[in-house]
């Protein structure tokens, strides 16, 4: 499979007037955060907001470039795709704009909101299988039975070229950029961007980021064995690919990508909260992976670094959980428990100790029957609004000074 810079330039012409050339801005807050690291003390961080692209992610670029390049006969037969979210919406809207009928196969447990959004863009949604792999197999079956054209989410020259238009936009905004940080799922996004930016500016560094729960491409990049890798659920479901593609690695990632790192769900949650609070950007898990990497990994970023926020289609059902988790990791929310004698006045002494440290009590729960408690003891659980990890430690010391025993760390 071959994609050239000329293909990306052609894709840009196809996409004019259809996609949104998304904003790229310098982030003072992110730059200050990264500047705390001596190695990146002078780094300026820029965000490329693909979360504001039509359908909420970069996927629309590649999908439209693919469908707009179909022959009249292929368009008449219709297209089929498999996806649990962003690719589905990108294909659905692209097909509607091009006047093509689209069938999207989604897993039966796909987000209700994402399935509804895909239908709203004009596609016929088929729910099949418990996992993405089963939906993918069914889509391929429909391709053969119905004569549809299969729109692959990443392993397609037109799709890669479409995603590569982001790279051109980035360097038009900041021509002397030193580093680009890009999330990796199947590899279509980073392949297109890396090809584009390396063609224009050969010395630029391209760093890929994967979830540590689906790290296949990172292992392949480091030439490590994949045998023991087992995919597990992650909040970065948009980049959760079970098996990395040797084709994508050999043709693009091994040639144009300088480094690949992984990040944890906790780190991604912290990044989502930072983006929401400091830049007012709503990002899904996969969209915040690149930010998680620069916050938590010792990367060589240079003086100017662009972070790709690849998508914003976060499931509203888990937003509050992610925010709470991110706040806990940043020391802005604390859950802790103490054991005290079950005597009048003890709760008052505990709350006074907390108040003396200027923390806000959000919840209080009593537990007098848990295993391990004596008949004269009670366990009291607190949820506190705090300002930092150091603040939490001061609160613990204040509680212990009352005679309370801290029995559970914040989680």
Automatic annotation (TrEMBL):
Source organism (scientific name): Bdellovibrio bacteriovorus
Cofactor: pyridoxal 5'-phosphate
Keywords: Amino-acid biosynthesis, Branched-chain amino acid biosynthesis, Isoleucine biosynthesis, Lyase, Pyridoxal phosphate
Similarity field: Belongs to the serine/threonine dehydratase family.
One term of GO molecular function: pyridoxal phosphate binding
Domain of life: Bacteria
Pathway the protein acts in: Amino-acid biosynthesis; L-isoleucine biosynthesis; 2-oxobutanoate from L-threonine: step 1/1
GO terms under biological process: isoleucine biosynthetic process; L-serine catabolic process; L-threonine catabolic process
Domain ACT: 335-411
Pfam hit, one: PALP
PROSITE patterns: ACT, DEHYDRATASE_SER_THR
Residue runs in coiled coils: none
Protein name: Threonine ammonia-lyase
Catalysed reactions listed for this entry: L-serine = pyruvate + NH4(+)
